[in-house]
Amino acid sequence: MDVDSFWKLIEECRDQEGGRAGRLAWLRGELARRPMEEIAAFQVCLDRRCQEGFTWDLWCAAERIFGGWCSDDGFCYFRLWAVGLGRTAFERAVRNPDTLAEAPEVQSLMGRPRRSWGDDWPEWEQLDYVAATAHEQMTGAPYDNRVFYEAVAALRIGDEMVRDPRGEHWDIRDEREATCKLPRLSSAFPITTQP
């Protein structure tokens, strides 16, 4: 599976009914019909896209949307969610995170109290497990991801795992800087007093 095939699957997944659960079920079924190498390659492509999004600017966009705070895990799940927006939206957001303000999924959150976001919350942790569960479904074996992750590791030889976000860290609570770097998101998502 190459990058274009990966994004084609993500785009087809976006067209499915049933919310995130329905989309995941569809994607799991699609992957489970493929050879083990393709399922592992999907995970590698997903991991690489998430690494592309590992920037301070995107993290600050997540913090702004969340009201001023986003944990390490929260940012991981946010990046998975951003991948789920599709290739165009994701690649634009990596280059300029303020373009997230154009995504319908983000626009639907604007002006709503965060406590009402429910299933619309911009995170998608389960996407990170879909390939492993597809492998389990394909083999019919009890959940043992050792074989799956060994296949993933074999495909990742030579990949550099970045430990710190790229770019310069800045404070989302500095309104002047936030307004300069994320003007639309700063306007749409005010900072709250509590994380």
Automatic annotation (TrEMBL):
This is Molybdenum metabolism regulator. InterPro entries: DUF4240. Residues 1-137 form the DUF4240 domain.
